[in-house]
Amino acid sequence: MKIKTAICLLTSILLLAGCQPKKNKEITNSVGVDASAGSEVLSFDDHGGFHGDGTSCVVLEFKDNEDVMKDIESDENWRSLPFDENITALVYGVKGEGFEIGPYLTDENGESIVPDIQNGYYCFIDRHSESENKYDDSQVLNRSSLNFTLAIYDTDTDRLYFIKMDT
Questions:
Q1: What is the pLDDT of residues 87-113, one digit of tens each?
Q2: Are 26 and 45 in contact (CB under 8 A)?
Q3: Rg value, the chain, Cα
Q4: Which residues pair with 148 in a beta bridge?
């Protein structure tokens, strides 16, 4: 009995250890930042709805951010904060006189999954079939569905938020 428990525990540990590099590799391939040195702080994925709809989020923390910053600064698709209006609506929501847009990236309680980030960079990738320029967010809120990837690097905490949304 103890041997079976030990084998199950060891197998679980090996499977979990094998997941992190796969996620880090996906992040690296998607947004051009070498995520291999990142330590996973948070991860969830609720894709599994109708036609694979859902949101996934991986948060990585970096002890040494020099390589991350080199990757971001050398990539023209990364922009410095603050977010533009469309990304602000997706992440935190926008309220005005008589209207409210978003937030779209929320937890089960309707709260934004991204904390208030003051300093950093972001990279938006529009994966919608109608997208003509995948790094342009100007049409993201004008469609009936949202299919995008958003990476945000918080320079105050050295955390990278990697979010994929499919509706």
A1: 999 999 888 888 888 888 887 787 888
A2: no
A3: 18
A4: 126, 165
